Amino acid sequence: MEGIPSIFSLSAVAAILAAVGFFVVQRFVKPIDMETHQGFLDAMLSIVGTLVSILLGLLVAAALEDYEALEVSVDKEAASVAHVFRITAGLPAETRDRIQGVCMTYCEQVVNDDWPIMEKGKIPHESFFTLSKLVNEAAIFEPKTEGQNNLHAELLSAVSDIVDYRRDRMLVLHSNRQQNLMPVLLMCSIIVLVFAYLYTRRGTIFHGVLISMVAIALGANLGLVYVLTNPFKADWKIQPRGFILNKKALEQLRSRPELMKLYHLKSDAPAPSSSASEPAPTGKN
Predict the structure, then answer these.
(1) What are phi and psi of 49, to 5 degrees?
(2) Are 247 and 82 in contact (CB under 8 A)?
(3) Would 72 be classed as within a structural domain?
(4) End-to-end CA separation in angstroms for the chain
(5) What gap in Å lies between CA 127 and CA 114, rounded to an integer?
(6) DSSP 67-113
(7) Which domain holds residue 109?
């Protein structure tokens, strides 16, 4: 079933298992007296069905909210890296080049290393060391002017944001939510199907079709919870769109030194005395 979305796969498997279970019950389980137990079964199925539907609804809503929050966090992490790259243009050339080089390396590592590693459920380490280097560069810089002091404060804030957003990614990899939720959801789904098996024995094929449709709905909800609680490896895995955009933009700057030079000259223009005492930027990082 490779290539088939998880939701469809789980729905199909649930329908097949439900149909098989129904026909097994039809063949080997003694029919119950519906005239005697109909009212009780109706009441119990109504209670169980309501509880399961509420549980599934709340879990899907919570999983979707967490998924969207994580997606926003990844985009904000990339935006913070781009912000660090921009504001360092106003720092001394040596510091600027070091920090911008670290930003380029971090974007490349996130796209090329982090995502494949996180898809396997593992913690990436190389980008952590690169981020630590970025934090160190921002922390040890000593501003000499009021303008550099303002830029330094903004730099520290942006780097702190990167650290926080990266932590959000790492916490998801340590989450045990799926392992805790799936057994409960499977148990509830089985209970609903068992109740459905106990109803009327007339119209076996029609009864089996209806049970399969119920199983498809349950399987779809289970599949939805699965893909939302696996944001880096399921069908709807989050992509590092912001980092890919950063990587392309920085590669364009690196391949066209005149753009990098123009960018630096514009940033250094408010401080001509500092620019005059420093060598002109070459565009290499």
Answers:
(1) -60, -40
(2) no
(3) yes
(4) 46
(5) 7
(6) HHHHHHHHHHHHHHHHHHHHHGGGS-HHHHHHHHHHHHHHHHHIIII
(7) 6-25+33-271
Amino acid identity at 218:
L
- Note whether residue 102 is domain-resident: yes
Cα separations in angstroms, 235 against 24, 225, 239: 33, 12, 11
How far, in whole angstroms, is CA 100 from its chain's centroid? Answer: 27
Amino acid at 74: V
- Kind and range of the H or E run holding 209: helix 204-228
pTM (2 decimals)?
0.76
Q: Which pair of structure tokens corresponds to residue 208?
A: 């089996």
**What is the three-class DSSP state of 4?**
coil
Token digits of residue 197: 């098996």
CA distance 198 to 195: 5
Token duo for residue 9: 């796969």
Residue 213 lies in a domain: yes
Length of the chain: 285
CA 21, CA 192: separation in Å to the nearest integer?
A: 13
Task: Quote the tokens at residue 126.
Answer: 């190389």
What H or E segment, with its residue span, contains residue 269? none
| Rounded-to-integer distance, Cα 195 and Cα 181, Å | 22
Cβ density class 210-230: b for 16+ within 10 Å, e for less: ebbebbbbbbbbbbbbbbbbb
Task: Note the pLDDT tens digit of each residue in 48-70.
Answer: 888 888 888 888 898 899 999 99
Assess if residue 175 is contained within a domain: yes
Phi, psi of 203 (to 5 degrees): 65, 60
Q: What is the pLDDT of residues 113-159, one digit of tens each?
A: 999 999 988 899 999 999 999 999 999 999 888 888 999 999 999 99
**By the 8 A CB rule, do 282 and 257 touch?**
yes
Tally of domains in the chain: 1
